[in-house]
Amino acid sequence: MKVSLRWLRDYVEVDSDVANLVERLTIAGLEVANVRFFGLDIPPNLRVKIEEKGPVWARDKILTAQVLSIEKHPNADKLKLVMLDMGTGTPKQVVTGAPNIAVGEKGQKVILALTGSVLFDGHATPKVLAELKPTQLRGVPSDSMVCSAYELGIHDDHDGIILLESDAPVGVPLMDFMGDAVLEVDVLPNMARCLSLIGFAREVAALTGKTVCLPKPKVESSQESITGKVQVSIEDGKKSARYQARIIRNVQIGSSPGWMQRRLQYSGVKVISNVVDITNYVLMETGQPLHAFDYDVLLERAGGKVPHITVRAAKAGEVLVTLDGVKRELTAENLVIADNQGPIALAGVMGGQDTEVTGKTKNVLLEAANFDFVSIRKTSKQFNIFNDASTRYSKGIHPDLVEFAALRACELFQKYAGGQVLSGFVEAYPAPLPEQKITLKQDQIKRLLGIDVPSAEVTRILRALEFQITEVQDGWTVVVPPFRLDVQAGAADLIEEVARVYGYDRLPMTLLSGELPSQRFDRPRYLEELARDTLALSGLREVINYSLTTKAKESPLVASQAPYVELLNPISAERDVMRQSILASVLDNAALNLRNRDTVRLYEIGLTYVPQPGEALPKESRQLALVMTGRRSLASWDDPQGQKPTLLDFFDLKGVVESLLLGFHTPRAEFGSAKEVNWLHPGRSARITIQDQIVGFFGELHPKVAAHFDLADRSILVAEINLESLFSVVPERFAFTPVPRFPAALRDVAVLVDDSLANEAISKEILAAGGDLLKEVRLFDLYKGDTIPQGKKSLAYSLAYQADDRTLSEKEIEKAHKKIEDRLRHVLKAAIRGKDA
Hints:
Phenylalanyl-tRNA Synthetase, Chain B, domain 3; nucleotide-binding; protein biosynthesis; five-stranded antiparallel sheet; CATH 2.40.50.140; magnesium ion binding; seven-stranded mixed sheet; alpha+beta; 40 strands; ATP binding; 6 domains
């Protein structure tokens, strides 16, 4: 929102100390991102963007002037000699090539810059400030110039010089006549009322103790009545609370007055014509969008009958060519303004080309309406149309503002477009909003703010914000004004208003007092933090993603027929359902990071949401997802260029999973076939089972799934663990294992088994046979070669035998070792290499 201080002063007295005003507004929740000065000196205590610093219009060098005569240049066809009255009694001649003044004309008001003026050089790129010096233009001396908007730093228009309004004074310093400071304010959704000059003025008045002076429209209606000239209806009061139509006859299409053009330009609004400019001016002033239709076109479309304007949902197959010339196919989600033949405007977003106001327009139908903010927001997003009107509608506007804005526009049409306003109006108002009353207690303010704000100050602040208040015992009864749709939460919202205006900076810093309630041990949270610590020590970094996604994004990871929790009003098309997979989000993170690096190790802990039949709320399940890919280690001294990279593989991921389980002291985990999931590589994956409960899966991502996430042509290692299942097998307590006092004895065993037999099955049998003396089993070799029969493989294990109370004898070790070999032979039909033929 761009706020012209010169314009703002129409409604409230504004202090000349711009820096102080900026600070006060920012503290109150209206963050001023920048201040742009037009012709004024920049205060030394205020920082502005370097690229937006323009020329200062020196009081004694840049003035308003009036054209006395325009003659042809004797030596150049494109140049003219202009004689000017600059208010000193002595005419001033300048040479100009401006195309918007012609030989023989006189009386125009222009802007004169004398020698020594510092302006933007109209012939330099990029913009450069240059001092105006005397020169000769094709033999004629020239020590001054008439100025364009570009040279003055107003905007980038090179087409001609500025022509001021006819009643502009002569010989006045331009700084006084049109110098301005424009605040660029970031208006947050809860401050949407400040998307208008009047709304902004109310805030300034409350913050500074000044009084707001609002315009009081005066419209002289003609003898002709609007009755029988147009009909208005609304199909759904929830989609449109109010629609009002007025008719203005005999408008004269032309330029809007100079002061209005400047205000719009300073506010970032394009100047078009007096009719369009007036609707935009009222929009910026009041915050209520308006739209002007060519009434004669509506009559023609109605076949000479009374035009019937309807606010309704679009019908299937309907199309509308909007003002930007784009043909748009409409859906039932779109709210439209329609007449007897079909849609003539996208309600609250953009008008239609067929009924727009043109240079030939004589009669105007003025629309002032209120539309549902959700509907406008959806339509804006659907067609990617974001303008001043849709922005305000999408944040919510009270229907009571319609009347004032329409009257204000009619007043300006009479003054600056020569229009005759028909008496009365036609409207549909099916859904008036009820008056909202809130009871506020003094002790509520103390409880929320921690200080006693004097009751007189509370009264002053609320009245300054135009709340109607009645003092009652220990508090107030407050009536919320129509323009404050943001006040919905009762007393808390009112207390926030008191705090904002009173000043957050005035609230004293105090330590918390009182006894804290006893805290119960939150075991799941503790275990989550333990998991984070373990994963961080394993070199992984945590990511946090939205819980919202799309079905298409998760489709390779979730069953195709799985129902989702869908949002009624999604914030975007990319976030329309609640996620059922944490892994999908982390894979997206990995794909993004791999654009700039070759190694990522990421994890996320979060919730998934699965709808339950017959239940209002979905089942929330806490999950852990891991994604690893790339190098095992960075380039080092013996390989500084990274020519011999060792890539992460399945066993690196398995090590991370085992470290996680070890940190939880879980019972022994079994790693079996992951046949339950189809998103993992069938030969490089595993299922995690603890005490007959499946807690997760890990392995290499299936190549087709990897391609879906733009991760093709590389090994992507992933894991997905149900933390609730995992935490259920984590022991409440575990015994401390002391450091062994006696040495361990190591023995190796190599077995020849079927190629289909998993290492997990062999390790399980070894541990079962080894008993208490066997402390560790470690696979250290896998061999398939010419000496190994077809369909077989050789696995070699290192076994550690150890007793807690003695050094084991050779006889004890051999006995335990033989028991293991015998079990492998009989249970797994394995051959012991080196012993069995």
